[in-house]
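>> Question from a student workshop board

For tomorrow's exercise we were told to take the sequence and the ligand below, predict the bound structure, and bring the output to class. My setup keeps failing. Could a helper post the expected result so I can at least see what it should look like? The ligand is adenosine-5'-diphosphate.
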Amino acid sequence: MIEFEHVTKAFHGKAAVSDVSLNFARGAFSVLVGTSGSGKSTTLKMINRMVDFDSGIIRFAGEPVTRHPVTALRRRMGYAIQSIGLFPHWTVAENIATVPRLLKWPDKKIHSRVIELLELLNLEPAVFYQRYPHQLSGGQQQRVGVARALAADPEVLLMDEPFGALDPVTRSSLQQEILRVQRAEGRTIILVTHDIDEALALADHLVLMDNGKVVQQGAPDTLLRQPANDFVRGFFGDSDRGIRLLGLYCVKNLVRLGEAPSGG
Ligand code: ADP
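>> Workshop helper replied:
Here is what the output should look like for this input. Compare the format with yours to find the bug.
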């Protein structure tokens, strides 16, 4: 659905992304993982043209992204990032409805989509619909941010460290909710994280980046069991950690298949 061919981007003469070729499949949960500064965010932002690239081609639905008008492209791609806050003077419902209102959806359709998303993200509509952002916890605000990015039913959801500042328990429950949303709506998601556990808990397709390059990509268990080189082996740590992470990955897939209690 989204393909990169030999894409390169430099800032002030220094390469941020070098000769990256990638394929993000429709309906898959893809995760870009790597240390800070490895080029993950730049890669993500080139997809919705928040950052222009220097050379190569990025295609979305078969067409180079540079041929899609920017506003049309961004309407087809939700974007959730921890630092994009909610509008403080708007209720939860108004925040979630931001893009549908711009698209002039009828009020009834907006209302039912807001209710649907609140339920999907475990926010009781009767409680949260009319609340203001300052009345929400950090985790609830993040959920509303994700609901807002999903509201107009984008074909792709791009997420950049969306759970960054949350405590581990809230973070883990949001990860489960995002997985549920992805499963329920057959959503194409591309998420950036530096957190190895998060990457393995979520990814169908894992892309490990270092120094602006893709070091290895594939199913998480392929990277764990058949690391392409010492860097990949070292990134995922010693064998004990690898085995524990592989366990996490298996649990996630059992949850996905509905063979374990929902919520993990
Ligand atoms: P990551 O998301 O993996 O932390 P980034 O894609 O944000 O990495 O950054 C990759 C490299 O590009 C880093 O060296 C970073 O400093 C540089 N970079 C990213 N954005 C900009 C920018 N707007 N201006 C200058 N340099 C940038």
